[in-house]
């Protein structure tokens, strides 16, 4: 099957050139040997699980347009000056709140124009230095947050995208809390194209976590809070990440995988 052959090649490529901020389920025991094992069953090769580390120190690995800016994410860093709520006055949208709203605004605008070429432009191994000043600023600040994902690839991949499930509780307007379903213009929408691959999916997921899109929510209440009270949203998102987006919990969620209903 063409999709199996393609996925085996992708697995071998990632084994040779790992993605710095991603740990795959196959990495924990046998390392590169298992990741590049061409004898993997079709079930194994069509279902990938991994943990993505959202770490501000990785912001320099790519352009902010492609991988987002973790230093601006409340999952990693909530500014001490960020208020618990925002008013409608323009002054309340300066400073830290302005950074958060700017990230949301950029995400909303870009998502409407996203195509597969947006992600394909950054399809290397992720080792290049960023030309974006916003990516490099504050790269050493903040904590890491960890998120587990499962990709289930269809027989006609890469012409159709994998089904992506977020494993474990996540506070994000574009992630359904009860199922882990996610909504993204590229990964689950019309922006998908056959030039995308697992490496680019991981890049896009990092951006997705950094830049929520309140215009296309799966959780209306979270999206509303993000737009109307960004300070309160940031506070809740940060607290939720401290409690749930730990390495131990993400690794456990990855090991368990998507639970059958």
From TrEMBL:
Location of region: Disordered: 21-42, 111-138
SUPFAM superfamilies: UBC-like
One Pfam family recorded for the sequence: UQ_con
Stretches assigned to the UBC core domain: 83-246
InterPro entries per record: UBC (IPR000608), UBQ-conjugating_enzyme/RWD (IPR016135)
PROSITE patterns: UBC_2
Name the record gives this protein: UBC core domain-containing protein
Organism expressing this protein natively: Cyclostephanos tholiformis
């Amino acid at each position: 099957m063409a999709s199996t052959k393609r996925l085996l090649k992708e697995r071998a490529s990632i084994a040779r050139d790992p993605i710095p901020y991603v740990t795959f389920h196959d990495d924990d025991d046998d390392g590169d040997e298992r990741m590049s094992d061409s004898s993997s069953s079709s079930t194994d090769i069509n279902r990938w699980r991994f943990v993505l580390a959202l770490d501000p120190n990785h912001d320099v690995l790519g352009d902010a347009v492609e991988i987002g800016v973790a230093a601006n994410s409340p999952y990693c860093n909530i500014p001490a000056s960020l208020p618990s709520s925002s008013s409608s006055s323009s002054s309340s949208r300066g400073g830290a709140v302005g950074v958060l709203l700017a990230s949301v605004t950029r995400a909303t605008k870009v998502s409407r124009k996203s195509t597969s070429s947006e992600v394909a432009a950054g399809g290397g191994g992720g080792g290049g230095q960023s030309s974006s000043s916003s990516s490099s600023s504050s790269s050493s600040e903040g904590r890491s947050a960890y998120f587990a994902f499962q990709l289930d690839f269809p027989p006609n991949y890469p012409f159709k995208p994998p089904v992506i499930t977020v494993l474990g509780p996540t506070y994000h307007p574009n992630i359904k809390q009860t199922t882990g379903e996610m909504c993204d213009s590229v990964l689950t929408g019309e922006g998908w194209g056959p030039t995308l691959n697992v490496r680019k999916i991981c890049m896009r997921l990092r951006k997705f976590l950094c830049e929520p899109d309140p215009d296309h929510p799966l959780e209306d209440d979270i999206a509303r809070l993000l737009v109307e009270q960004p300070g309160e949203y940031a506070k809740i998102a940060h607290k939720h990440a401290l409690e749930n987006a730990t390495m131990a919990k993400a690794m456990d969620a990855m090991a368990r995988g998507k639970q059958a209903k």
